[in-house]
Amino acid sequence: MQNNDKHCFIDITKAKEIIKSFPTPLHVYDADGIINNARKLNDAFAWNKGFKEYFAVKATPNPEIIKLLRSENCGLDCSSYTELSIADRLGFKGDSIMFSSNETAAREYVYARKLNAIINLDDITHIEFLKNNASIPEKICLRFNPGGEFGTDADIMGIPAEAKYGLTRSQMTEAVKQLASLGVKEFGMHAFLASNTIGDTYYPLLAKTMFSTVLELIKETGVRFSFVNLSGGIGIPYRPEQQKVDIYKVASQVKNEYDRIFVANGINDIKLFTELGRYMLAPFGGLLTTLIHFKHTYREYAGVDACAANLMRPAIYGAYHHITVLGKEKETKDHVYDVVGSLCENCDKFAVNRQLPKLNYGDILFIHDTGAHGHSMGYNYNGKLRSAEVLLYKDGSFKLIRRAETEADYFATLDIFDEFR
Ligand SMILES: *Cc1c(COP(=O)(O)O)cnc(C)c1O
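That is the input. Now the predicted structure with pyridoxal-5'-phosphate docked in place:
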């Protein structure tokens, strides 16, 4: 436990240099890490012709990061009007956009059709809704929910029966028939059955379920399936003792299922898609924050200048985020602190009873794995403003990729009042 630290992609010298231009709190991202990870994913699935990752925009909706991923052939997975607008503004069109929404508004379908995005229908009633409000495309995807429980061990347990998403097995058959009669020529299937899975078995198990269902649907209805979208859900090791997913092993086990279920039945042209968010970005972002207060009451509190408005996961899920005190990587962790932010909410704790080296005023803490569902989940409670985002390149140079919010941003929606104009 003592020296069981996680590697940081930034050291104290670089952190101080960046903070000189862009003060803490601040999200930093590792461009090289993002690119190499995306390359590995593509390489692992290279056996599948047409494999494509559609990055889940909601995880990290930053244009510069999206461009890095696009340079590695990634498309975008959007789920709202604004996310479609991000895709549109960055020049994504057609098959490079997956629209995986739920409880979709009419204007969102209209926009998705305008961009000719691949629409992933979350419910059978949306066939009629899409037809009435926009139009039925020639290619469409259906989100499947097999019900029951999914997984083999604690690492990948999801409970699809309690999830609001997707069509039941019998609705899948019915939906395919309806859509075929409305002119759909090409089908895809999507399913997202467990989140933040660790271990290497989630995708292979998911693939087995999805591939067999696709095969059944082809036999039942005679339609053409051109892709299977394995969606997101691959996790990352937030805790230092956890193992990173072996993406090559995952991809080769998915291939085994592909060969056994598709190829053995004469099908070898079904493309595989993924919609990973966390796996693509989480480890390649960190939240830099400065220690500004100590408080000795019933516990030892270390107060920092970031708060849950910058990173909500600990507050809302009790999620673990590892913390490294920059410059003290080698010191013994012989102190115990609650690392806390300034919200008037007791859940605003980045760490509870965490063993850390002795802290001092001005220490810079690196909160790990905030690259996905980090900045993007931020909010403005207590009038807190969201931080800037900075992208760090391999050669040590860095670039501001989102400025910090100002009071004017916070008051922008109050410009109906003279005092706030
Ligand atoms: C959130 C989401 C993803 C990405 O999930 P991760 O856990 O970040 O991999 C992919 N697809 C859909 C439809 C989602 O809602």
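Residues 56, 58-59, 77, 79, 100, 192, 195-196, 231-233, 275-279, 372 surround pyridoxal-5'-phosphate (CB under 6 Å).
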